[in-house]
Amino acid sequence: xxxxxxxxxxxxxxxxxxxxxxxxxxxxxxxxxxxxxxxxxxxxxxxxxxxxxxxxxxxxxxxxxxxxxxxxxxxxxxxxxxxxxxxxxxxxxxxxxxxxxxxxxxxxxxxxxxxxxxxxxxxxxxxxxxxxxxxxxxxxxxxxxxxxxxxxxxxxxxxxxxxxxxxxxxxxxxxxxxxxxxxxxxxxxxxxxxxxxxxxxxxxxxxxxxxxxxxxxxxxxxxxxxxxxxxxxxxxxxxxxxxxxxxxxxxxxxxxxxxxxxxxxxxxxxxxxxxxxxxxxxxxxxxxxxxxxxxxxxxxxxxxxxxxxxxxxxxxxxxxxxxxxxxxxxxxxxxxxxxxxxxxxxxxxxxxxxxxxxxxxxxxxxxxxxxxxxxxxxxxxxxxxxxxxxxxxxxxxxxxxxxxxxxxxxxxxxx
Amino acid sequence: xxxxxxxxxxxxxxxxxxxxxxxxxxxxxxxxxxxxxxxxxxxxxxxxxxxxxxxxxxxxxxxxxxxxxxxxxxxxxxxxxxxxxxxxxxxxxxxxxxxxxxxxxxxxxxxxxxxxxxxxxxxxxxxxxxxxxxxxxxxxxxxxxxxxxxxxxxxxxxxxxxxxxxxxxxxxxxxxxxxxxxxxxxxxxxxxxxxxxxxxxxxxxxxxxxxxxxxxxxxxxxxxxxxxxxxxxxxxxxxxxxxxxxxxxxxxxxxxxxxxxxxxxxxxxxxxxxxxxxxxxxxxxxxxxxxxxxxxxxxxxxxxxxxxxxxxxxxxxxxxxxxxxxxxxxxxxxxxxxxxxxxxxxxxxxxxxxxxxxxxxxxxxxxxxxxxxxxxxxxxxxxxxxxxxxxxxxxxxxxxxxxxxxxxxxxxxxxxxxxxxxxxxxxxxxxxxxxxxxxxxxxxxxxxxxxxxxxxxxxxxxxxxxxxxxxxxxxxxxxxxxxxxxxxxxxxxxxxxxxxxxxxxxxxxxxxxxxxxxxxxxxxxxxxxxxxxxxxxxxxxxxxxxxxxxxxxxxxxxxxxxxxxxxxxxxxxxxxxxxxxxxxxxxxx
Amino acid sequence: xxxxxxxxxxxxxxxxxxxxxxxxxxxxxxxxxxxxxxxxxxxxxxxxxxxxxxxxxxxxxxxxxxxxxxxxxxxxxxxxxxxxxxxxxxxxxxxxxxxxxxxxxxxxxxxxxxxxxxxxxxxxxxxxxxxxxxxxxxxxxxxxxxxxxxxxxxxxxxxxxxxxxxxxxxxxxxxxxxxxxxxxxxxxxxxxxxxxxxxxxxxxxxxxxxxxxxxxxxxxxxxxxxxxxxxxxxxxxxxxxxxxxxxxxxxxxxxxxxxxxxxxxxxxxxxxxxxxxxxxxxxxxxxxx
Lengths: 415, 589, 289
Hints:
- The structure holds three protein chains of three kinds.
- By secondary structure, chain B is of the alpha/beta class.
- Helices cover about 55% and strands about 10% of the residues of chain B.
- In chain C, strand 1 and strand 2 (about 130-135) form a beta hairpin.
- Chain C is built from twelve helices and two strands.
- Chain C is mainly alpha-helical.
- Chains in contact: A-B, A-C, B-C.
- At the B-C interface, helix 6, helix 11 and helix 13 of B face helix 4, helix 7, helix 10 and helix 12 of C.
């Protein structure tokens, strides 16, 4: 008897807990990666369109994306922004009358799931191209597979080592981001002893093996590495950073918050040591969490900075309006997803005749899309054979608790 | 005996075999889209097979050997890493890689298992959890070779490139491993796992080395995980990272293995299905991926609260069934040729003293056991009788004095080696292992299985049920007699029977006394009997030693001893106490 | 080097505190509670939610301690109702099931949001030479030592301690002597729940993620093994040693090539290995015959 009651209690508690969090998570439910998303998108589209008029009615153009919705490094912003843009296009009549069906798969930030997800999209759902993916395992895992299947990926946020022919990503990416940040500190802030502080996981080995020597050769100086294990207290890393006069931080959001707190506690935030973050640190949300410890830090924007109030280019206006109506935050990852979707739609518009994998692939390879959001027009010319189609970024600094743009476009390799 | 009988009762193998064939056929022949599973179902099926193998590795340790390992997935990872390295640096055939991967984890298995050999099962969990954390950390700075570039990725063997064929391969490997484990589990080494789980003392008492048994179980488990690592590598064609081998993955695995009872092939197949299909269903429906984890966690708790057998314990073919063989015939009677007291001592216990801190449990005790006799040791509760057995059999090591068997000093030997050298014992509390059959339990105590006729004779003599009767289905009194029989199976020189009649009815204990009397003549072995039942002792022993407060207070023939007033005082005084004690103990139940 | 060692005191104190709680629940509750940090992490994340809603940070911390104690108490109650006669192995395996459930629930509710954890005692900060000692370091270091001392004294020197030890050694006998065993078991679970939650609260800002916090159980277990699952004081020494070595180890890590410091994730395992090799020199048999 006791046993049964206990089990009833346990299951009851769990139900309450899960229902409770289910309701508080209503916003994630509609971004859930699944085949059902397409149906939801179709259903939602007419509602949005009432004002705009004719919704698309033709056979859908099926696109997919592998993204990290769960796991350690998550990038849902990119596919969410892409999805918002596609919904807008569908509501306005689609591409040449065809609605876009956008399917996403969660890779959980692990290669195995990335491989399964890509397979599901390519072989089971027969997507015509991949778009808007936000993941740092997708490219390293699937580039070869995409090449085998003759399918292109225009990713929003992605990172690849060399040789990733079939993936081009809109973001500048962590590797170029690190090199740009280091370059800025050395050239503009007079840093003599630059360090790179990061976790000993994920992409770090690729940076160390491939990109670090590249930067050192170009700049004629060396970078000291400070690597922590992912589960370690960052105090040791912060303390080691005392030996440098400029530290490039290659982390994710929670680590920047922790790092800033420890640096402040250790009395290292008086401006003697310069700090730069990757673009993951570039969100309004982060400002409050970093606190005054991060005053004077700089960060990569990767695109035209959305915090630049003076920027009223049509794409920036559209991006901000879209994020607002979709209930998404403004981040550079979202910019990547939005631009990836935009590039894709530009390409799809040029397709004459049937939408097939071949015709879509040819169209993407031919696209040349210029926007003030990018340092130079998007073309299918992956840099170094790597995933980054975008080799430009702007540097933003934190001043009086606000983001302030402090540089014009910077490029890698430097121009 | 044909193969099916050796593997167990063939009736019992039929249902699971048919099920396995059906699963395999479904895997290969099913159409492209089956309901919710879609065309990537074959990949899900591969996951089921590989996860099943990993579950077998963890379930076998927990279910059979009572060892809790939290690094099964780490062994998979190490093997996968070795496979990845081989793909990049050597071009060997797939199966050779898998084999090398499985062998490569053995040293780690010995290291981790060896660290915990002298600890109870749960401490192994601590060692393995820290090991799992270490492995993932080291993978962080030693990436899977080839995983970061596109050139050298693992491949599947020729003929098994497609998901369907690769599933078939993995499934066949899983079935082969399951059958091999079943076969090994019925050999002495495998039976010994159950013994270690049930009682480490009894394991050593049966002449088995507890550390070796544990390391053996751990290594077998590691090899299973190692094979899974090779298959895992082929499954994802090299796209693997350390994130798959986090300690929490091993915890999920252990939980699902416990929930299902993955110690057998059928349990492992079910565990594999749960571990692949449930997350897939959740994923397809866009439900949170954390729910399966919570489900497995609660499922494991539920299974443990129900006795720990897991879901598969309910499978019809896993339920114990009564033997259908005839009851063994008692052999013709042999005249009990009791040898007169005072013959040459085969076992000589000299000046044995045992101290626990300030307490002296035994003081200068001398006992001689002549060849082919039954001698008794009696004394009130707490007199030190069981301490005597423990010390002589090597379970108490810090004693003073000498134990000499057949002129050979035993003092430096471990309990296991003493048992092997011909000194066996039974225990006060029953130590029969319910998961085994009568015959398996007896063969556990002998280096080589008894010939069928000899086994039959032994069972017949003690009027025990047939060899294939599960012990779980026999009564407690019979189990005690079975323990006596098992202690004699290896033909020891001296056997210590520690209160063998405790818990037996009057009739059963009289019969046991008769059997004990015949032991020297039948088995050529001496008996040292420790009993509370004075009548039984007087009936069967040629000599009796009386101990009280750790000191020998009397020694002689039964008549001499029982008429000794000192004994009467010590013993009768305690008899009264003992009666009271029984009542108190009865009240405690 | 010295400043790294001092920085390691903060982590070491937390490991020691978790280790002390593990030893306590093993000695009194006859269980190795693998879920100990997992339930505490749930409480700490709920705390961060309160803080995000504008609660006073101390109020939120008190709420977290209450919640951590309560969850743990419920676990102890389940344990004493369903598994009071089960072996240590079974009971400990049950806690693995519990750990997974808590991990799943916490991840489900909180995984996708950036959390701000209070940086306690951040105003307390002083310098000895080049070494900065922070308030959190002092709190966790001294906290671990004081709590270990108190637990050691209570268990060894008081009547309650005698009863607690009786409860673990002979639960049925203790029950017959009129001791309400389940009450004491629940009490100890509550206590370890509160203390572990406190440890996680202190270290949360520098641990950053759910798995990082939950798997603080690993160095905690290593510390407890150094104390042979018996000695509170050795456990504290072990925990602090692990924290300091871990902090100093990056001194020897890679420039371009791998150094010994790169193997520091294996530190807990190495410490456990050494402790076990030492404590298991001789063959021993368990007490029951």
